[in-house]
Amino acid sequence: MKIVLLGYMGSGKSTVGKKLAAQLGIPFTDLDDYIEESLGNSIPEIFLNKGEIFFRKQEHLYLRKILESEGDKVIALGGGTPCYSNNMNLILEKTPHVFYLSVPIPELNARLLTGKADRPLIRDLKDEELPEFIGKHLFERRNYYSLATHTIQAGGKEVHELVSEIVTLL
Ligand code: S3P
C-alpha cells in the first residue's frame, strides 16, 4: 500500500507523514529529502544552479521511482508536485490513498513566515507580501490538490488527530 500526502508548503505533509508511517509500522519517504540525497544538493541549491524546470523533471522521475518501488510506504510530496508533469495522473494510477492536507491561509502564513528561507519560491518575498502570494498560489494549485481521493481539513488540529483521521479512511 502506498499512501500519498499532498498540500501547500507548510501544510504538515512531512510531520504528519512521519507519524502516520510510524503508527502503521511502514517506511516513510519525503520526496524532497529523497531528491536532495540522490542529487547530493539541497532544494534551494538545485533551484539556484539548475533552475525550476530541471527540479520539476527530477521531481517527476523520483516520484515515479518511489511509486514503483516495492513495499508499503507513506510518501510526502513537495507542495508543487501535484501541479507538474501530469504527476496527479501517475499518483492516482498507482494508489487510491491520496490525502490533501488543507490548511487555511492564515495558518500557512504563520508557519511559512518562519519557514521561508529553505523554500526558493517564497524566500525572497517580504513578510507582508506572503499572505497575498499564498492566496493566489493556492487558488491556482487547488485544482490539482482537489484531485486527491480524500481532503483532510487540517487547520488547527494536532498531528495525532490528523493521523487518526487518515487511518480511519484507509
Ligand atoms: C515547492 C515546495 C517545496 C519544494 C520546493 C517547491 C512548491 O516542498 O518541493 O521548494 O512548489 O510548492 P514543501 O512543500 O515541502 O515545502
From TrEMBL:
State the EC number(s). 2.7.1.71
Q: Specify the pathway.
A: Metabolic intermediate biosynthesis; chorismate biosynthesis; chorismate from D-erythrose 4-phosphate and phosphoenolpyruvate: step 5/7
Name the GO cellular-component terms: cytosol
Residue positions binding Mg(2+): S14
Recorded catalytic reaction(s): these are: shikimate + ATP = 3-phosphoshikimate + ADP + H(+)
Q: How is the cofactor bound?
A: Binds 1 Mg(2+) ion per subunit.
Q: Does the keyword Metal-binding apply?
A: yes
Organism domain of life? Bacteria
Which CDD domains does the UniProt entry name for this protein? SK
> GO biological process: any one?
amino acid biosynthetic process
What top-level class of enzyme does the UniProt entry assign?
Answer: transferase
MF GO annotations: ATP binding; magnesium ion binding; shikimate kinase activity
- Keyword terms: Amino-acid biosynthesis, Aromatic amino acid biosynthesis, ATP-binding, Cytoplasm, Kinase, Magnesium, Metal-binding, Nucleotide-binding, Transferase
Q: Keyword Nucleotide-binding, does the record have it?
A: yes
Q: Where does substrate bind?
A: D32, R56, G79, R141
Binding of ATP occurs at: G10, S11, G12, K13, S14, T15, R119
Q: Look up the record and name the cofactor or cofactors this protein needs.
A: Mg(2+)
| Subunit and interaction comment | Monomer.
Q: What does this protein do?
A: Catalyzes the specific phosphorylation of the 3-hydroxyl group of shikimic acid using ATP as a cosubstrate.
Give the protein family.
Belongs to the shikimate kinase family.
The name this protein carries in UniProt is Shikimate kinase
Q: Which organism is it from?
A: Zeaxanthinibacter enoshimensis
Give me the gene this protein comes from. aroK
